[in-house]
Design brief:
The protein is mainly α and 227 residues long. The protein has nine helices and no strands. Helix 4 packs parallel to helix 9, helix 6 packs antiparallel against helix 9 and helix 7 packs antiparallel against helix 8.
């Protein structure tokens, strides 16, 4: 039953997120209220914090309503040394990969999400980073927490990883075939690390590193070329 609710939370949450953030009314709200570069920034903040609500707050309420202990779905503090070692190792690899890929057209088309030319103010840089952290914490709680561990308990390791990775790849379809295909091995690795440690923290930290390094490398590059 809990796995069914988790799958439903992913499905409904993603559908609501897509329809709301892609609606003309959503875009017009920020443009009419602020306009210009501020509207572009606030629209992305709005998208990310809406995602944090749909992917984090609502699933947490569902989990609590079912009497689920958060420690049983990856919200626990253990294996700190293992977590830090994996984060540092994978983080260095990701920072290197994003450094060599951030100038490519595919990357420049997606990053930064806030389409405001650099230089950014410290306030905007911090607000963007904080919004990404909030969004990705909710995202990993839903995928590598609520969804993964409820499926793991009710179905076993292989079905849990298969369901998790399939849904994870599907929600990347709108980002193009490269990200969709890339989400499959990455999703499997994230699931294995979460299962091994019993927590969401390695996937969360690696995901944050990926997003922020993409954004910061791109801002650095655009600032140099004057775009």
């Amino acid at each position: 039953m809990n796995a069914t609710l988790a799958i439903a939370a992913v499905t409904v949450g993603f559908i609501c997120y897509q329809f709301i953030t892609q609606s003309p009314q959503f875009c017009e709200f920020f443009e009419n209220r602020w306009g210009g570069n501020k509207a572009k920034a606030y629209q992305i903040y709005g998208q990310l914090w809406l995602g944090a609500f749909l992917y984090g707050v609502l699933p947490a309420i569902i989990a609590l309503s079912q009497g689920i202990d958060f420690q049983d779905i990856g919200i626990r503090f253990q294996h700190g040394g293992t977590t830090m070692a994996w984060w540092l190792g994978l983080g260095l690899v990701i920072v290197a990969i994003t450094y060599f890929s951030h100038r490519k057209p595919d990357s420049l088309a997606m990053y930064p999400a806030i389409r405001v030319p650099p230089p950014w103010s410290r306030r905007m840089t911090f607000a963007s980073a904080l919004s990404w952290v909030g969004y990705l914490l909710a995202y990993e709680f839903l995928f590598r927490g609520f969804l993964l561990f409820t499926c793991l308990e009710e179905m076993g390791v292989l079905p849990a990883i298969a369901i998790n990775t399939s849904l994870y790849a599907l929600v990347h379809v709108q980002k193009g075939w490269k990200e969709t295909i890339g989400a499959i091995p990455l999703g499997i690795v994230f699931c294995l690390l979460a299962i091994q440690t019993g927590t969401i923290w390695i996937p969360f930290l690696v995901h944050v590193t990926m997003s922020l390094s993409n954004e910061w490398w791109t801002l650095r590059y655009l600032g140099r070329v004057g775009n």
